[in-house]
């Protein structure tokens, strides 16, 4: 059935308040996200990490041909893999109560990752994007690694 949610593209509160990087992505450009999951991610005959990279590559192409977009989109799988790995390790060692206390720092890190990656969208050019990332010592690449 078609309703308002079919045309809804952004869940602002979900993007801003959500703790998880992956969840924040799902709340942004939702109709495109749905299409990418259904027709690119799930159908790619690749391991999970490579499927994420493939999906981000297609998403970058969808958004345009500016190199900054590709730099940002192709950094997303690094953050997704880091988030999954960190959750496994941290949850296993901390327990439920400590995991709940980690919500604030987790959210803060997610938002800084979004800030860092948005520069590819804002600056568009590879030289400008890499120049900005270099000015902050590629922290948005080093932290997830």
UniProtKB/TrEMBL annotation:
Signal peptide: none annotated. It is found in: Endoplasmic reticulum membrane. Keywords: Acyltransferase, Endoplasmic reticulum, Membrane, Transferase, Transmembrane, Transmembrane helix. GO terms for cellular component: endoplasmic reticulum membrane; mitochondria-associated endoplasmic reticulum membrane contact site. Pfam families: MBOAT (PF03062). Pathway: Phospholipid metabolism; Lipid metabolism; phospholipid metabolism. It catalyses: a 1-acyl-sn-glycero-3-phospho-(1D-myo-inositol) + (5Z,8Z,11Z,14Z)-eicosatetraenoyl-CoA = a 1-acyl-2-(5Z,8Z,11Z,14Z-eicosatetraenoyl)-sn-glycero-3-phospho-(1D-myo-inositol) + CoA; 1-octadecanoyl-sn-glycero-3-phospho-(1D-myo-inositol) + (5Z,8Z,11Z,14Z)-eicosatetraenoyl-CoA = 1-octadecanoyl-2-(5Z,8Z,11Z,14Z-eicosatetraenoyl)-sn-glycero-3-phospho-(1D-myo-inositol) + CoA; (5Z,8Z,11Z,14Z)-eicosatetraenoyl-CoA + 1-hexadecanoyl-sn-glycero-3-phosphocholine = 1-hexadecanoyl-2-(5Z,8Z,11Z,14Z-eicosatetraenoyl)-sn-glycero-3-phosphocholine + CoA; a 1-acyl-sn-glycero-3-phospho-(1D-myo-inositol) + an acyl-CoA = a 1,2-diacyl-sn-glycero-3-phospho-(1D-myo-inositol) + CoA. One of its GO terms (molecular function) is lysophospholipid acyltransferase activity. The keyword DNA-binding does not apply. It is a multi-pass membrane protein. InterPro entries: LPLAT_7/PORCN-like (IPR049941), MBOAT_fam (IPR004299). GO terms for biological process: lipid modification; phosphatidylinositol biosynthetic process. Belongs to the membrane-bound acyltransferase family. PANTHER family: LYSOPHOSPHOLIPID ACYLTRANSFERASE 7, PORCUPINE. This is Leukocyte receptor cluster member 4. The lineage of its organism: Eukaryota, Metazoa, Chordata, Craniata, Vertebrata. The gene is Mboat7.
């Amino acid at each position: 059935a078609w309703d308002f949610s079919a045309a809804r593209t952004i869940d602002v509160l979900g993007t801003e308040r959500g703790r998880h990087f992956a969840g924040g992505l799902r709340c942004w450009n939702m109709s495109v996200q749905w299409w990418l999951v259904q027709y690119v991610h799930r159908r790619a005959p690749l391991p999970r990490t490579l499927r994420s990279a493939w999906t981000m590559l297609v998403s970058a192409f969808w958004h345009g041909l500016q190199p900054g977009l590709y730099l940002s989109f192709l950094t997303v799988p690094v953050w997704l893999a880091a988030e999954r790995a960190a959750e496994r390790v941290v949850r296993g060692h901390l327990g439920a109560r400590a995991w709940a206390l980690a919500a604030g720092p987790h959210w803060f890190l997610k938002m800084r990752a979004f800030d860092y990656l948005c520069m590819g969208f804002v600056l568009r050019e590879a030289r400008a994007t890499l120049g900005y990332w270099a000015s902050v010592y590629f922290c948005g690449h080093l932290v997830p690694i």
